[in-house]
Amino acid sequence: MNLQFSDEDERFRHSIRDALKDLVPPDMARRTRQGVHPTKADLKAWNRIMYERGWAAAHWPKEYGGTGWSPLHVHIFEEELAAVDAPFLSYFGLRLVGPLIFTFGTEKQKKQYIPDILTGDTFWCQGFSEPSSGSDLASLRTTAVREGDEYVLNGQKIWTTEAHYADKMFCLARTNTEVPPQKGGLSFLMLPMDDPGIQVRPIITIDEGHSVNEVFFENVRVPVTNIIGEEGRGWDYAKFLLGNERVTNAHVPRAKRDLVLLKQMAETELRNANGTLDEDDVRRRIAKIEIDLDGLEWAVLREVIGGSRSPAIASALKIVASELQQHMAELAVDLIGARGRVYYDEADLERNDLAASPPEYVPGLAARQLFLRATTIYAGSNEIQRGIIAKQQFGL
Amino acid sequence: MLKESAERFVSGEAGFQHTREGIRFSPANWKTMADLGWLLLMIPEESGGLGGGAIDAALLTESFGRGRLITPYISTAVVAAGLLARADDFSTHSALLESIGTGQALVALATEESSSRYDLNRITTAAKRAAGGFTLSGEKIVVQDGAIAGHFLVSALLEGKTTLWVVDKDAAGLTRRAYRTIDRAPACDLSFADTPATLVLADAAAPLERAIDQARVLLAAEALGCMEAALSITAEYIKTRTQFGRTLSSFQTLTHRVADCYVKCEQLRSALFRALSLIDAEPRARGAPASAALITAIEAGEFVCGQAIQLHGGIGMTEEYVVGHYYKRIRAIGRTYGDLAYLRRRYIDLTQRSA
């Protein structure tokens, strides 16, 4: 396999780079660098800008509003986006439910939902995890009981990212409690978040940010036409999505941008430290991160281009990427001395009234390091991923 | 007895479990600590204190760690009290020291500057003679407990020497920007513009290093309290949480992780005992084990409290639950009186280079 970029690839890269020049408002770029969680306003505004250029769903097929670019060009495009600190567009419509709908949905559903996903006018969230099932989807308890032309939904979801931004949710529920979830018990349903039977409660994470929520359903009535694909095939569709998620979760473009920023930051800090930082140690840690990240990038490209779709590879990517993100965040905080324990209030950031008179890159680093502790937990904990590798690859 | 009363204190009203609505410094707790005599503990008998040792203080801070208390105990009752008790002219400062002992005064140590990276002598704040005394000019950052302090002990250069001064929070030319740290401790930045100051130590380098070595060891003890509490909560959690139809504790990879955490706690306890036994030794014999104890606390704490989050899964990531607060305290402890890079360099300087 050869991943040399051709002249055409390079021309493509430069055309994207030129087009993106000055496209991200400076404030939005700063928030992307410093913030742990994107704001809804930034996501919406950037989604609209991307939509107007036909780039909101660059990774989608042309017929559904994508670009039809090759996976390599999509990768180049995402790298260039990350390089200008563009917000990473909301995941749930464009990465998850959109592909689910155009792959398994009805023509009517495609017409009804896809356009607003592309424009960003409709924000989605994903109802997977429940209190009793973190990494274990087989133990989901939320039920959807059929009554005439409707399902009646009862139960609770947790860790629902951006539920407080979302207009709609797609969720997994048990449409048949007689059979196990893996064997036809689960279905995908779409529902509006403004239903009076839905309650959203924020969960504040240890970075003191709000990105995840608890969502409660009490007799939420969902028309049967809101089912995605066939009843009872939720388990298969969930696997389809988790497969996508585990590759995208590698976040290589953003990690490459973070490494560029990390190296700049390290040079500044080393220069100012005047011997009080261990330069060899810093450079060794950067080298290790760079080597691991290059390896990860090639692994992702191998997967994207070759498409082995092996469950063990996806798990390997998730383990490497999550640990790498943590190492980068840890090094960044280690570089900034005592400021690494300062809590930077978001309001202070907006007012540019900053404690400990830091360089621009400092605020947000400590919070980011804290939040990224979640990377080894979410989307299937790394312990689960190791179990999958042992089982799928070696039959253990 | 001190240990029992400290444990009772942190498992009662003062501890995290009772204050989870946003843990913060509690004046009521501070008063209780004064009433119990804890604020007099580290003040020498000849200065009106109890003349206790670092071992006693370590019992307290270990419990404070366990209860995840936000308290200026180390900065005020150990570091500031210890430095004021050694003041060149004790009579000038005896009233302030007495107020520390009774819980009336909070005194924070302001040594860190924008580019000092914990090196006590790498500072630019300067003292100069002015009409009727001295003034300070310069800036300090991330002053531990600075947001609630009434006085500051400030390091500054005078004729090339590191000197230590006391400054009132309302002094002319002093600007304080209050904020908090990731572990919810009250901190501040200070900026001095010809701010009147009173001399505490004309040659402060050695006494400062001694006081901060004490603080390092007490932080290591606090870290141990955090770690052991996080670990016991985690072990309990994996016994009861079920996934895939079995308890998490039936997965060996998780129980072994708990065992690794235990090993690290014991390593830290040993490093801590060693540092405590040498805390009154000469600077080199004291400084190396004190640095070693804090290094061990930072490394072991990152592992133990990080794994406490990991083994809990999502719930461990929430601000509402306690294990994340233990983790954040460890992160802050590792950036207060030296970080890993600084402490390792200091350890090497003390042990591998001739005097």
Layout: helices, strands, pairs:
The complex is a heterodimer of chains A (396) and B (355).
Chain A: H1 7-20, H2 26-34, H3 40-52, H4 71-83, H5 91-104, H6 107-119, E1 124-127, E2 143-147, E3 150-157, E4 168-174, E5 186-192, E6 198-204, E7 210-223, E8 227-228, H7 234-248, H8 252-273, H9 279-306, H10 311-335, H11 346-351, H12 365-371, H13 382-394
Parallel strand pairs in A: 1-4
Antiparallel strand pairs in A: 2-3, 3-7, 4-5, 5-8, 6-7
Helix pairs in contact in A: 1-4, 4-8, 5-6, 5-7, 8-9, 8-10, 9-10, 10-12, 10-13
Chain B: H1 2-11, H2 27-35, H3 54-67, H4 73-85, H5 90-102, E1 107-110, E2 126-130, E3 133-144, E4 151-158, E5 161-168, E6 174-180, E7 186-201, H6 205-240, E8 242-243, E9 246-247, H7 252-277, H8 283-312, H9 322-333, H10 340-352
Characterization of this structure:
The complex is a heterodimer of chains A (396) and B (355). Chain A has 396 residues and is α+β, with helices and mostly antiparallel strands. Chain A has 13 helices and 8 strands. Chain A has helices at residues 7-20, 26-34, 40-52, 71-83, 91-104, 107-119, 234-248, 252-273, 279-306, 311-335, 346-351, 365-371, 382-394; strands at 124-127, 143-147, 150-157, 168-174, 186-192, 198-204, 210-223, 227-228. The mean pLDDT of chain A is 92. Chain B has 355 residues and is of the alpha+beta class. Chain B has 3 domains: 2-102, Orthogonal Bundle (Butyryl-Coa Dehydrogenase, subunit A, domain 1); 107-203, Butyryl-CoA Dehydrogenase, subunit A, domain 2 (Beta Barrel); 206-352, Butyryl-CoA Dehydrogenase, subunit A, domain 3 (Up-down Bundle), CATH 1.20.140. Chain B has 10 helices and 9 strands. In chain B, the strands form 2 sheets. In chain B, strands 1, 2, 3, 4, 5, 6 and 7 form a 7-stranded mixed sheet that branches. The longest helix of chain B has 36 residues, at 205-240. The N and C termini of chain B lie far apart (41 Å). The model of chain B has no long low-confidence stretch (mean pLDDT 95).
